[in-house]
């Protein structure tokens, strides 16, 4: 640079002194010589003379001067010269200079007009200066030329090297990238004038960082030079970039910067266990959820690419454990998921798999990104307390249980390998716990006093089991004792059923379903059993227990007939399941009825048992009301008739009506059959029933007697003949011409078949035992008390037959 500046100074010096001249020399006039000296200082005006007017050439105009920057000489640097055509060299013209830097940077010789720079200039600081020049008369100070403005321009030299304003730089590129991958772009700036020469033309080159990276010489773009650079081999690279001006030629200025390039991680490495088998130990008393141990699979990648997912391979014995991931340490923590028992199993072996959570599809061809290791967990024995066979015990006991009765037991075992003996005790917490005692060896629980359900229905006691060889180890369990009520009431049938059986019923047909109730508590959960009495053999019906607290009455035969037997009584025994068991016997009345072929009821004897199907509630109520009214009318009518008969029978013998005929002739007794035919008024039905009631004969005797009477003539007391006889006499009294014109009463000894009171006639006195007590007739009502008095009065007299007709 100094050499070049020196050459320029020599060039300007020669030009200023006139050693260099143009090829065509101008005329050697005064004005021509000055114009030649100024060169590019300004353009002069020519003076023209035409038609007597002289035209003068103007020489006081300047555009610009040039001065080199960074002048290093000892003398002031010459800039240029001011001159006017009016200056004849006699020092009468004075040159003045004003503007930027006058006096400090620039100075002028007032006589000669030479301009010098007093100091070195820097174009990068200020590229030009604007000044004003003027020529005045030295003596008078009158301006000879107008003030003229010009520019002194600083000419550039290559004095500034390129600079990287943003350096040093940091960049990153993914590892395993192909060659030529873009990294970043750097730019350097040069303060020199880009329009003058090559001072500002920059070329980039890489000084350090090869062969990994390259840089474009014109654009400054940095790219990878090698493919598949591995971060796990080398992660950080420092690259030194140079920027040189003058197009990179010799003598150009250069600047450098550093770029720190980091290879960013990609998931190109699978996790790997450091060993194939891990040995862990855990005490059998460890709680569920506690950590058993740690294992780790190493991944050379970083951040999320190094995250590992741990899992227990299904199968083997890994169901007892779980595994979790610690993101900070990248470890797998094995956690206990179930209780361990050294006496049951002493070791567990399973496999653990480690795999990457985030996979990169570009590297899947390298194989599976996972690894497997075996984990063996050894269970350590711990001395444990005894263990009860149940978590809790429940005992039911009746309140009348005698004292010292064993009501239940508990069992605890020492599961350790040493197998110590166990002792039992009751933990006293409340006074009521004193009602029980426990055998210290067997664990049986017994009562120490009578239990009262009314005072305490439930007792909760705690039984403690302690190891003999280590009394500090114990365990306890809750025993609940429920005091049960004693079974006091027998079950009963819900209602006394009256049912029916069809004449066309089949064998095994269920004709009625029954159930039972019990007054004992609780009502829920009671169990009843139904059966027929063992001492009674019923050939018609049986009881079938359904097992759901209900039973059915089942037929055992066919051919039920109303005219043979209308009613059957079926006894049913019902028993509960209480303690002690209670039972009762109920009866079920079965009525024989006529039914349709499908089993629907038609009628039972003369009355229908059930109302017609399809009647509304109102219709049923109306029918019932009518039946009640008819019943009341019948009762009133019967009552009036009985009252009237009572008055007639109690009539005195002194009745003044002459239609009453008295027969006072006393017969000869039962053996006198000539005076009166006793067989005509004899009631064979009454004889049979009296014999059964008094126990004077058997049923076979009565049957034989009835058969004889049925085959004997009227004198033997045929029922039909007697009925016809009385009916005939009634017709004669009511319709005959001999009937009296007022009310009359005809009384006969025969009461008719089916009379509840039986026959009251003394004609049948032959069947009466003289020792018979007739006082039982008083229970039939007031009407029979008079009869009892008559029979008691005359029981010693022979019987007489009296027929009164009025």
Automatic annotation (TrEMBL):
Localization terms from the record: Cell junction, Adherens junction; Cell membrane
GO terms of molecular function: beta-catenin binding; cadherin binding; calcium ion binding
Alphabetized InterPro entries for the sequence: Cadherin (IPR039808), Cadherin-like_dom (IPR002126), Cadherin-like_sf (IPR015919), Cadherin_CS (IPR020894), Cadherin_Y-type_LIR (IPR000233), Catenin-bd_sf (IPR027397)
Keyword DNA damage: no
Gene3D superfamilies in UniProt: Cadherins, TCF3-CBD (Catenin binding domain)
Annotated Cadherin domain residues: 84-164, 165-273, 274-388, 389-493, 493-610
A GO CC term assigned to this protein in UniProt: catenin complex
Transmembrane regions: 619-640
Domain of life: Eukaryota
One family name in Pfam for this protein: Cadherin
Listed GO biological process terms: adherens junction organization; calcium-dependent cell-cell adhesion via plasma membrane cell adhesion molecules; cell migration; cell morphogenesis; cell-cell adhesion mediated by cadherin; cell-cell junction assembly; homophilic cell adhesion via plasma membrane adhesion molecules; morphogenesis of an epithelium
PROSITE patterns: CADHERIN_1, CADHERIN_2
Membrane topology, from the record: Single-pass type I membrane protein
Signal sequence interval, chain numbering: 1-20
Record keyword Isomerase present: no
Protein name: Cadherin-12
Lineage, highest ranks first: Eukaryota, Metazoa, Chordata, Craniata, Vertebrata
